Each structure stands twice: as C-alpha cells, then as structure tokens.
Amino acid sequence: MVLSRHELEARYAEAVGATTSLFVYAGHVDEVLERFALAGEHDVAVDALGGAGLRVPDLRARAQGVHVAGGRLLADITVPSHFGCRPFELGADVSFEAFDRIAAGKLQRKVVAVAARGPLALDADELDTCDLVAISEGLSTVPERMQRHFDHARALAEYLSCCEELASVSYPGLPSHPDHEVATRMLMHGFGPAVEFQLDPAAGMTAGEFIEACRLNGRTYPVGGSHTRMCAPNGSDGHTVRIFAGLDNPLEVAAELDRVFRSLRRGE
C-alpha cells in the first residue's frame, strides 16, 4: 500500500521533530527559498553542514541572535540529514532537506522537504506515485543507511588525513577541523557523509582531472544512491574534491584514491 503525500509529510514531520512539513519538487533548497520567498527581512538561512570546507555553524547560538533581532533561523540539513541533525532542538524555526539521499537516489524528480515549528502557508506539490514509494521506502531505512554513510565517510577522512601530498582535508570529525568542537554538539551519530580535500596545485592535476582518473568516482550513479560519489564544488578547474561516502566498501574506495595519488607522485 502506497502512503499518501499527507501521510508521508506527517511521518517526516515527526522524524525531524517539527509540527508541519510538506514536499515540493525542486532541484535544490535555494530554489524553494526563491519560489516561496521564504526568507524575510530579519530571517537568516544557514547550512547545518556545508559550504567550503564543510563548515558547521553553532545553530543554537545563531538562533538566539536571529530571534533577538525578530527573525527566524532557516536551516538546510540536506548534508547531515534529519538523522544527523535535529534542527528544531537547536533552535531553528524552519528546516529544508533535499531528499536525494533520503530516497536512496531513487527519485524520478528531485524533492525538497520543508518543515516548521508551526503551520506552513505554502502549497505542496502532488508527487508522482513512484516518488512517493521511493520516499516511503527511504524513510523506513534512513537510520541504517545513514549510519553507514557516516561511518564510511569517517574511514575515508582518516585515510585522507594521512596523505601527505594533499594541501588539506576537511571533515568535521577530525580534530584539525575548525568546527570540530561545535560539530560534536550540533551533529548526531557521527559527522555527516561528506569529506573534502584540496589537491596541491603544484602536483599538476585539477579536481576534474582527479575525479576522471578515479575509476570509483560514482559519476554514473544517481546522487544520494548507494555508491560513493565525487564532485568538484569549486569547478573542474579548481583543486577541491568532495566525496559523498556511499554504502560500498570504503577500503576499496581508499585503495582507488591511493592508486591515483601514487600516479601523481610518479608524475604520470
């Protein structure tokens, strides 16, 4: 039996700790903010985990400041997911979560969930049956899958932190990360599914070239799916590579990364 959109929205609201939630078709969270003009004059939108260097803001402190100014804190929890971050417990008023990973990469069209402490005066989209099924199945398996994403990211981060040829490695779970202490208070069950590293420009390889050279880059698989996937957040000509850990064996991914690093050392 396929649950209705309203039933799934109620199920998600309970999972995220909100009063209300709704689903809309959108390519990304910013599209939702623009479509519904959700950010008011004193409202502040933040990523719970993201941006350059995978930064983690102190949501509780940010919420207190925004509320004093008469605004709302709008939190994008897409990267850590509602499994890894409880935005409303930390003071957020509205949360957003792109469902690529929640639905295990099985959506026909991209969906973003909007949740709030109170009523949402927005019009939800009627989702196709196949997308409702993907969301329903995904919500049922989130804890198990997301824990594996988180654990595999940590394994890859620990491996990358030992690679001397890298300019830097960013992962909130590493003590070297500038937000490590904050992340231990803001995130749950680990430190998210992503790890980022900077290639040394002197090595002569761009992020795009590195990803292309890596046979396990996951680029032919859907975003949010079971395979580890790499991207270049600063563009292919930059030197930043971001890895979203999948459910596949992180040791195999690390071995493939090591193969490419060794080719760099040899100047191939």
Q: What does this protein structure show overall?
A:
The chain has two domains: 133 residues, Type I PLP-dependent aspartate aminotransferase-like (Major domain) (Aspartate Aminotransferase, domain 2, 3-Layer(aba) Sandwich), CATH 3.40.640; 123 residues, Aspartate Aminotransferase, domain 1 (Alpha-Beta Complex). The chain is 36% helix and 16% strand. The strands form two sheets. The protein has a five-stranded mixed sheet. Strand 8 and strand 9 form a beta hairpin. The longest helix is centred in the middle third of the chain and has 32 residues.
Could you give a short description of this structure?
The protein is of the alpha+beta class and 268 residues long. It contains 8 helices and 9 strands. β2, α3 (59-68) and β3 (73-76) form a beta-alpha-beta unit.
Strand content: 15-25%
Low-confidence stretches: none
Number of helices: 8
Helix content: 25-40%
Class by alpha and beta content: alpha+beta
* Topology pattern, helix = H, strand = E: HEHEHEHEEHEHEHEEH
**Main pleated-sheet profile:** 5 strands, mixed
What is the name of the CATH class of the largest domain?
A: Alpha Beta
What is the overall shape?
A: globular
**What is the name of the CATH architecture of the largest domain?**
3-Layer(aba) Sandwich
Total individual domains:
2
The averaged pLDDT comes out at 95
- Please name the CATH topology of the largest domain: Aspartate Aminotransferase, domain 2
Report Rg: 19 Å
